[in-house]
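explain this.
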Amino acid sequence: MGSPLTAILDETVTSSAKLEPRPALAELKPVFNGTRMMAAVKKLASEEFEGRGIGTEGLAKAAAYIADELKKAGVKPGGDNGSYFQELRVEGPNGTSEQVKNVIGIIAGNNPKLAGQSVILSAHYDHLGHGWPGGHGRFKGQVHAGADDNASGVAVLLEMAHSLAKSAPERSIILLASTAEESGLLGARHYVKAEKDHPTEQIFANVNLDTIGRADDKFLIFGSSSAREWPFIFMGTTMTTGVKTQLVQQAINASDHTAFLEAGIPAIHIFGAASADYHRPSDTADKVSLSSLMQAATLTKEIVAYLGNRPEPMTVQIKAADPAAAPVATRPGGRTVSTGTMPDFAFSGVGVKISQVSANSAGAKAGLKPGDIITSLGGTPVANLREYSTELGKYSPGDKIDIIFTRDGHILTLELELGKR
């Protein structure tokens, strides 16, 4: 009796043996620094950065902050004239011409046979400032923190700078913190056209991080049809990391990966989850999940490291007629109307499935509910989110339109008075 290995066959007999607690023989250090990522989100989403809007001092401060963090991580500058910055001019909120900057770092490849080739890891750092462009009218003048959209993506990009800079990839990895995404993907499109040291025809692939701070149990992957290998790559990441992903079949091209798709480059967008705080002042740092950031970092590192060392080229499947490759017609300010609904981005059927309906919104007043699948707006069929968004762009606040939708297998029609964004 008294031995910790004693077998107690009689349940009326108890053992007094105890094992003293002791530390593990070995303890693995965390691969990524969650404290550092959360600090980056809080910094970028703070009042100091004014919502990182075009025309604000906060946007320039954000660019300087990101460049400084890249330097601390040991990532070399990849911008103009030996700097971290690539400058461009864009339209500001009052029609003014504003100078803005992409922030670029580079981890040079070490294989001479792949010289000039690059994998682009991108995340836009701009947001809506005080409500422009594309903000909801009732929030104009308020600071839009943009914590999930997209301080979260930038935080993970900066963590990749610390992690990937320690390695020696076969081909170069370029970290692109792009600007003016909210104005029509202008920073990313400028990079694709203007980059000289790593020209477009030598870009191997693009991995874009946008709104990844509030994932539930999986990440959505847009653009996975752009290369034959993407589905197999994500099968591998699930096996090796345990991070769940879902490949979205619809062409969702509202982020910077679209600039690369337009140029015939395989590109994906990693996305967390839609929320009612999208493009609102309520998108604040306290709602970003550390767990989501850590999982996004784990997933991103696995993908980018693989692409940086993959010997074979990707099998491009982009066709000029594909919706994913077609340039998106965008303008500063975006569309002006709102239905008050949030789409289910993972839905792969015909139409647009509603995941959320905001209280007291146009959709709520008309009677739309989560789960409804919209198939027609104003007499025009809409088969996917792209067509849905295009149709809404034709209307003005106060316009009344007929909506045809499916609910529980029944086809229904209602009239909806469009609200103002």
